[in-house]
UniProtKB/TrEMBL annotation:
Residues 18-139 form a coiled coil. Gene3D superfamilies: 3.30.420.40, Actin, Chain A, domain 4. This is Hsp70 family protein. It comes from the Eukaryota. Keywords: Coiled coil. The keyword Coiled coil applies. InterPro entries: ATPase_NBD. The lineage of its organism: Eukaryota, Fungi, Fungi incertae sedis, Mucoromycota, Glomeromycotina.
Length: 709
């Protein structure tokens, strides 16, 4: 019984084991089937990926073919561009030849006119001889006949001779009618550029972007390079300063000397230790530079506006710093005359405007639609140049008028100071010696280095440790964001501080801020200014080409006389007046009393700080001191002082002497003259007017003191 029970138990266990094995087998079989299915899916995905990979390879092949085609097209375009430049150069040569032919024809025409004048003169002489012969035939000649003949002969000879040209400072209306093109010249310390416009197409102002045969730059360097005798200009502009080592000509370098730059600083009132050392007189350098820039201006005007007589039909507007007085403008005018930018030194075809006001005029014309719709808006113009950053705060009124409301502010923190910081950084890495050697031996290559970094330094680095370090890095100096920021930051902080102080001085909400000037093209500078002042200034805007704003503003200023749409007020920076002879009174200095009881004093006509508009007049009444007086003159002085009693006081300067003819009238009342100053177009102009007839009297001389030439 026991055995049977055991057998039954074993049979039951065996059956249970078989069932478990069968169940496990089924599970394994199911997993195996699942793995097979998963493997099949993976194989399918692999095949799909292979197909996509083939498609990508095919697309990549097509892109490579298109890229090669683009390279071929680009190469063809470069060749065509070179051909166009070559054709342009040939056309320019032909145009110059045509100009020479025209000039020769003009000379021939002038000779023909001269011959005609000679024939007329001979005809008049012949007529006089006939009269003389008739008189000789008279039996009795009385004294009246002789006098009649003499007066008639003198009158005819007077009509033949050319009368000396006199300069009427007020009668410029006829000249304005002849103007067909306005040119704005932005003459800077480091860079110069110009814009121009046809007066019948005032919305299309062109800025010159072709310099030294290359297209794309809107300014060239204010630099000249002479031969060793400093007689002839060898190179000028960027080629005179930046020397590419690949194109460096040793013979040319030996035949010329170090380029001359920063010569504009001499026009200002800087002390001698701040002015650069020049090997030649600065006015000669400025005249020579104007002559070279004048060739570019004349070529550009001739191409854009053919059949233009430059000296008759072109108005040139030169921008000057706001602190330049009439003495400095007179120097520039004289240099422009010597450079043949104007036909006569006193020509009204040359005008001046300040750099800050030209920038303001440009911004007013181009950004007035962006200003808030209100009666008045305070606007700050930030002119970031290569050397100086100028700030001007203006009040815009109804988008048609603006006036200065605070003093201008400026600081030496332009883009050139970033170049200086870059050189300092290189000196830390490479040492002072190689940089000094490069500067002393090849100044032009150093300027090239500033623009194209390190390719020219190898020959000047003699320190073995520095060379070994550079060799390890394959002569690569990495400049990361932190280093670049440190180079920029010193200059950027000065600009931000300057703007902040100007905003505080305004004491009013600034509606808009406009960034102009070459340095304003820096995206980093734009971003820093916007970050710093976007909460306090409603609008911060930058024109498309801020580097051309001043030159285009000068053009717009020159067009005012034709459009007459914008009125400008400004603040007089000097007190102007005359030397006056008055009665000596108690309290006057006894040592200044003359023998006839008179004293000479300074009589102000307009005081410093006065707001003036275009062509505003400040005058006084004048007349003859004695009945037979026919010539009168007045010495005009100016000073930075608000109150000055005598013309020989400290800071007093002679502006010039104005001379004019008094009317030839026996009635003393009819000889009263109004003499004064016109504080109009950013220049001070003298005038004299007959009070009885209203006739404008021409100025016989308006000469600046020789001490300033």
């Amino acid at each position: 019984m026991t055995n049977e029970c055991e057998n039954l138990f074993l049979a039951d266990n065996h059956h249970e084991v078989v069932e478990k094995l069968e169940t496990g087998f089924n599970k394994l079989n199911n997993k195996f089937v699942n793995l097979l299915e998963e493997n099949q899916r993976i194989k399918q995905q692999y095949e799909n990926l292979q197909e996509k990979s083939q498609e990508i390879l095919y697309i990549n092949s097509e892109l490579n073919e298109k890229y090669q085609e683009i390279l071929r097209v680009n190469s063809d375009l470069n060749k065509k561009n070179q051909e166009i430049l070559c054709k342009y150069s040939n056309l320019k040569v032909k145009l110059q030849a045509k100009d020479e032919q025209i000039e020769k024809l003009q000379k021939d025409l002038n000779l023909e006119k001269q011959k005609n004048k000679e024939f007329q003169r001979l005809e008049i002489i012949s007529q006089n001889l006939e009269k003389k012969l008739k008189i000789l035939e008279v039996d009795e000649i009385d004294i009246n006949t002789i006098n009649t003949f003499k007066e008639d002969s003198e009158q005819k000879n007077c009509n033949i001779n050319d009368n000396p040209t006199t300069f009427d400072l007020n009668n410029n209306k006829s000249l304005k009618n002849d103007i067909k093109v306005v040119v704005g010249l932005d003459f800077g310390v480091r860079y110069t550029g110009f814009s121009y416009c046809y007066v019948n197409d005032t919305e299309n102002i062109c800025s010159n972007n072709i310099w030294h045969g290359k297209v794309g730059q809107f300014k060239t360097n204010s630099v000249l390079q002479y031969d060793y005798e400093y007689n002839n200009v060898v190179q000028w502009g960027t080629p005179a300063l930046v020397k590419n080592p690949k194109h460096w000509n040793r013979k040319q370098n030996n035949e010329s000397c170090r380029p001359i730059e920063l010569f504009k600083l001499y026009i200002g009132n800087l002390s001698d230790n701040l002015n650069p050392k020049l090997p030649v007189e600065y006015k000669k350098v400025i005249s020579d530079y104007f002559r070279e820039i004048g060739k570019e201006i004349k070529d550009a005007v001739a191409i854009r506006c053919p059949n233009i007589d430059y000296f008759e039909n072109v108005l040139l507007v030169i921008t000057v710093p706001a602190e330049f007085a009439d003495i400095q403008k007179g120097i520039i005018r004289k240099c422009a005359f010597h450079a043949e930018l104007i036909k006569e030194e006193c020509s009204t075809n040359l005008q001046f405007t300040t750099e800050s006001e030209a920038a303001a005029i440009y911004c007013m014309k181009n950004f007035k639609c962006q200003l808030p719709a209100q009666s008045e808006n305070n606007v700050m113009i930030v002119d970031c140049g290569s050397s100086i950053v100028n700030l001007t705060t203006l009040k815009f009124k109804s988008n048609t008028q603006f006036g200065e409301i605070t003093k201008k502010a400026k600081d030496f923190c332009g883009s050139s100071f970033i170049d200086d910081e870059f050189i300092k950084y290189l000196q830390k890495i490479l040492g002072d010696e190689p940089m000094n050697l490069l500067k002393d031996n090849n100044y032009g290559q150093m300027q090239y280095l500033i623009q194209h970094f390190f390719t020219v330094l190898d020959q000047y680095i003699t320190n073995e440790e520095i060379r070994e370090s550079l060799n390890k890095n394959n002569w690569i100096i990495e400049i990361d964001f932190k280093i670049m920021k440190s180079i920029y930051e010193i200059v950027i902080q000065k600009i931000l501080h300057l703007i902040k102080v100007q905003l505080n001085n305004t004491h009013e909400i600034c509606s808009a801020m406009f960034l102009v000037g070459g340095f304003s093209e820096s995206k980093y500078l734009q971003e820093r200014i916007k970050q710093e002042f976007q909460s306090s200034v409603r609008l911060i805007s930058v024109p498309t080409r801020p580097i051309t704003a001043v030159a285009q503003g000068a053009v717009i200023y020159g067009l005012f006389d034709f459009e007459n749409k914008i009125k400008v007020t400004r603040v007089v920076k000097y007190t102007y007046g005359i030397l006056e002879r008055v009665d000596w009174k108690e309290g006057d200095l006894i040592n200044r009393k003359t023998h006839d009881g008179k004293i000479y004093k300074f009589k102000p006509l307009v005081r410093r700080g006065t707001f003036v508009a275009f062509n505003q007049i400040f005058s006084f009444k004048a007349g003859p001191f004695i009945p037979c007086q026919i010539i009168a003159s007045y010495s005009i002085y100016y000073t930075q002082s608000y109150e000055e009693e005598y013309c020989d006081g400290p800071g007093m300067r002679l502006f010039g002497k104005v001379k004019f003819e008094l009317p030839a009238d026996i009635n003393h009342d009819n000889r009263s003259i109004s003499v004064g100053l016109i504080m109009g177009e950013f220049d001070v102009t003298a005038f004299a007017e007959n009070d009885f007839t209203g006739q404008k009297l021409t100025t016989l001389s308006l000469c600046l003191s020789d001490d300033y030439f």
